[in-house]
Amino acid sequence: MWDAEISITESGDEARAEARLRGKEGGQMVGQGTARRNPADENVPAIGDELAAARALSDLSHQLLQRAAHDIEVHTAKPVERLHP
Fold first, then answer.
1. What is the DSSP string of 19-73?
2. Where is this region: Disordered (predicted)?
3. Which of 1, 36, 41, 52 has a CA positioned 20 to 30 A from the CA of residue 24?
4. How many CB atoms lie within 10 A of CB 56?
């Protein structure tokens, strides 16, 4: 079983998100994401939180794909050409 957790902090016009994925073997991966509000835009903090969280999850997703590609290469002794959709 894997556990995922997203934490968000806000400071002024910036939202920062951290997405953590903990695996069954005790290891973890961390993705980072930020969002900044344009001063000309309406102040809606929830939108910044959503963008920062999406970016953190995207970062985590890329890391997980890289790890999977590495593990495949280690087990098959062949290079992985493409894992991205």
1. EEEE-TTS-EEEEEEEEE--TTS---HHHHHHHHHHHHHHHHHHHHHHHHHHHHH
2. 23-42
3. 52
4. 24
pTM attached to this predicted model? 0.88
- Sheet holding 28-36: strands in order across? 3-11, 14-22, 28-36
pLDDT tens per residue, range 44-69: 999 999 999 999 999 999 999 999 99
Residues comprising the chain, all counted: 85
- Report domain extents, the chain: 3-76
> CA 75 to CA 80: how far, in whole Å?
11
